[in-house]
């Protein structure tokens, strides 16, 4: 029975994965999954699938005397049918779209399969002290679950023999008999007889990554543009966490000046005034130098803007910063320019491609609207860097 249940469950999971993969573009564009993190599960709305549930035969809804009621009260199978003629239209809401719970790592695998994303090749290693699984040492203290019982018995037996204990002498004689003929002998180990398995903490390599999310917070980047940034960052973060054991995030908001903020402010704050993109790149470089050395961390930077920048800032400050400081530290630097249907790309993107277009670590993407989110995610993550 359990085997059949597991088989049915696996079949249902395959159906769910297939439906999610088929509707992935619509799910990403709608943004229904964004903000559901907090646990290891997300709820995915699927319209074309029926959730398994117990359903009872309406003809077997109970007999006389079942449920609450008073003596002499009429029995009705459908409480909502009272005062309504057969076939008459009813009131109330209709069926809701079912939601299926799925683990985040499965969602990441579906994303990778749908977009044919290559596995990321980590470059950095950070060595962290972890207790090894091999117990190669012995300690005089430890939990009883790691007690070396045979050794404790032998030590107790030797002690009793050395002290001339009759029980110990008897045990020594009985030890010469075949195991099936030996009667039980009382040997009680004391604290000095006990030894415990012990493992030393040894540095072990662990792949770590840091994601620096940067966003233009000027007045022109509010509303729909911010929502597109939120959705892209959700899927980028999901894929990188699927590839690394430990992922940290940094959020940088900028207009003319840049500041590091938490995730909530990153998406909710917006300002007016001008835009100076180099301020975000300078702060990003400072954070990496102080907290995330590239020899120990895999570094991913993603910047989103509409491409409007202070006159001369891209060529005079941004390009040199990227070429000399940021790109050498990064596995990849992604720049997403959100145009919302505007025909020509902003000048910032044009200059980046003109001066740094031959550097594989720089990936640029133009996002004209929600329909481009899936394409942009593939552009950013499709190189496997």
What's a quick, concise take on this entry?
The chain has 385 residues and is an alpha/beta fold. It folds into 3 domains: 1-51 and 97-116, no CATH class; 137-198, no CATH class; 207-381, von Willebrand factor, type A domain (Rossmann fold, 3-Layer(aba) Sandwich).
Outline the structure in words.
The protein folds into 3 domains: 1-51 and 97-116, no CATH class; 137-198, no CATH class; 207-381, Rossmann fold (3-Layer(aba) Sandwich), CATH 3.40.50.410. The two termini are 46 Å apart. With 385 residues, the protein is of the alpha/beta class. It has a 6-stranded mixed beta sheet, sandwiched between helices. Strands 1-2 form a two-stranded antiparallel ribbon. The chain contains 11 helices and 12 strands. The model has no long low-confidence stretch (mean pLDDT 79). 36% of the residues lie in helices and 18% in strands. α4 crosses α5 and α6 packs parallel to α11 (373-381).
How many strand segments? 12
Largest β-sheet summary: 6 strands, mixed
CATH architecture label of the largest domain: 3-Layer(aba) Sandwich
Average the pLDDT over all residues and give the rounded result.
79
Q: What class, by secondary structure content? A: alpha/beta
What is the number of domains? 3
Low-confidence spans: pLDDT under 50, at least 5 residues?
Answer: none
CATH level-3 fold name of the largest domain: Rossmann fold
Given the C-alpha coordinates, what overall shape results?
A: flat
The CATH superfamily of the largest domain is: von Willebrand factor, type A domain
**How many whole angstroms does the radius of gyration measure?**
33 Å
Number of helices: 11
Tell me the strand percentage band.
15-25%
Helix-strand pattern: HHEEHEEHHEEEHEEHHEHEHEH
CATH class assignment of the largest domain: Alpha Beta
Q: How much helicity do the residues have? A: 25-40%
End-to-end distance: 46 Å
* Spatial order of strands in the largest sheet: 9-8-7-10-11-12
């Amino acid at each position: 029975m359990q085997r059949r249940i597991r088989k049915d469950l696996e079949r249902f999971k395959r159906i769910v994965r297939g439906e999610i993969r088929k509707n992935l573009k619509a799910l990403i564009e709608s943004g229904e999954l964004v903000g559901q993190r907090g646990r290891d599960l997300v709820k995915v709305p699927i319209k074309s699938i029926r959730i398994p549930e117990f359903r009872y035969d309406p003809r077997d809804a109970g007999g006389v005397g079942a449920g609450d009621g008073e003596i002499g009260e009429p029995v009705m199978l459908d409480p909502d049918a009272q005062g309504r003629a057969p076939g008459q239209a009813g009131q109330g809401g209709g069926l809701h779209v079912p939601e299926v719970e799925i683990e985040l790592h499965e969602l990441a695998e579906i994303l990778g399969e749908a977009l044919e994303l290559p596995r990321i090749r980590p470059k950095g290693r950070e060595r962290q002290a972890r207790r090894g699984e091999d117990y190669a040492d012995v300690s005089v203290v430890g939990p009883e679950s790691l007690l070396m019982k045979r050794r404790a018995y032998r030590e107790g037996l030797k002690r009793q023999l050395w002290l001339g204990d009759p029980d110990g002498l008897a045990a020594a004689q009985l030890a010469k008999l075949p195991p099936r003929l030996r009667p039980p002998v009382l040997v009680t180990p004391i604290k000095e007889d006990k030894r415990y398995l012990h493992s030393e903490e040894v540095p072990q390599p662990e792949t770590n990554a840091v994601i620096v999310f940067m966003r233009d917070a000027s007045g022109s980047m509010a509303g729909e543009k911010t929502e597109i940034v939120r959705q892209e960052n959700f899927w980028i973060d999901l894929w990188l966490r699927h590839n690394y054991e430990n992922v940290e995030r940094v959020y940088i908001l900028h207009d003319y000046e840049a500041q590091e903020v938490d995730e909530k402010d990153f998406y909710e704050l917006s300002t007016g005034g001008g835009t100076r993109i180099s301020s975000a790149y300078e702060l990003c470089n400072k954070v990496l130098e102080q907290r995330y050395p590239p020899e120990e961390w895999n570094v991913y930077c993603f910047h989103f803007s509409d491409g409007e920048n202070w006159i001369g800032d891209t060529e005079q400050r941004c390009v040199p910063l990227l070429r000399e400081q940021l790109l050498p530290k990064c596995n990849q630097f992604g720049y997403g320019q959100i145009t919302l249907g505007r025909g020509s790309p902003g000048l910032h993107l044009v200059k980046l491609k003109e001066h740094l277009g031959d550097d594989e670590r720089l990936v640029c993407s133009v996002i004209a609207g929600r329909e481009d989110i899936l394409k942009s995610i593939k552009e950013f993550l499709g190189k496997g860097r």
